[in-house]
Amino acid sequence: MLDKIKALREEINAAIASDMEAVEQLRIKYLSKKGLVSALMADFRSVPADQKREVGQKINELKTFATEKINSLRDAFLLKEDDSCDELDLTRTASPEQLGTRHPLSVVRNEILRIFAGMGFTIAEGPEIEDDWHVFESLNFPPDHPARDMQDTFFISRDPSDVLLRTHTSSVQTRVMERTQPPIRIVCPGRVYRNEAISARAHCFFHQVEGLYIDRNVSFVDLKQVLLGFATRMFGPDTKIRLRPSYFPFTEPSAEMDISCDICGGKGCALCKGTGWVEILGCGMVDPNVLEACGIDPDVYTGYAFGMGVERIANLKYKVKDLRLFSENDIRFLREFESAH
Ligand code: PHE
Fold first, then answer.
1. Is the predicted pLDDT of residue 82 greater than 80, yes or no?
2. pTM for this one?
3. Which of 135, 214, 261, 296 allows an S-S link to 291, with CB 3.0 to 4.6 Å?
4. What's the rounded Cα separation, in Å, for the pair 40 and 42?
5. 248 in contact with ligand 1, CB cutoff 6 A
């Protein structure tokens, strides 16, 4: 009996199968009710009592051995049938998928909005596809006014009324003024488009945050204080600002604001071209014509507006020299801002 068990074990050990069907045949041959291992159980009855213990144990061992053997043959085929398992790389670490990072422009925009929210501004948004009225006419750009050339426009259609891509988010300010009476205190973030050749310093689209405050007795002093508050929170408490006279059709008087260069601390370097100052935004008191065009009484209310490019602020904060990096989505560049938010 013991010899029979041993022979059967060797036979099973040597068994091979070329496909799943063959594995099933082996299972039937050895492990089914009428199989060879079960047949041993029938013989077991005639084994003398003093050998029953040893023989019983051997039969059980054989049964386990046969089950494991057939299972391992079956597993080999299951793995082969699943193609992806060919690429199973057991040396890979078990870390989860890498998370993306927030885009540097989003980080900077959120920071700008957070600072103005702290000063009581709420966020207003509007469409990127606009009409001539909201982008130009209402903002004191009469037809054929040369100031329209300041912002090279992408036109979508010129008939019957112009449809165009907004060149600034001042259009959102018009939309808010048209439907709201003062006090109005908003910041307008968004993407804007200008027909410019793409280079390290210019792109055909960029992002802005513009601000508007209209109420009774708003003066240039209020504007200056809010902008100083912004500059020191964004670029550090020692940051100085200066306002230079400028021109925009929708503000009067108008100014451009510089901040002290934080690379050289005002001594003069390549970034500030030796002047110690870098320009960051345009601003001014809202022209009475604009208030009137939007249904707000300029004899009762005054207001200020300002507008900045998010890319420009990000350039200064992170010393990114080439604007194009912001829209190329090179993951090595984006990863550098992993800890920025
Ligand atoms: N709209 C101007 C621009 O896009 C910026 C600006 C906004 C200037 C508000 C003054 C006041 O250049």
1. no
2. 0.71
3. 296
4. 5
5. yes
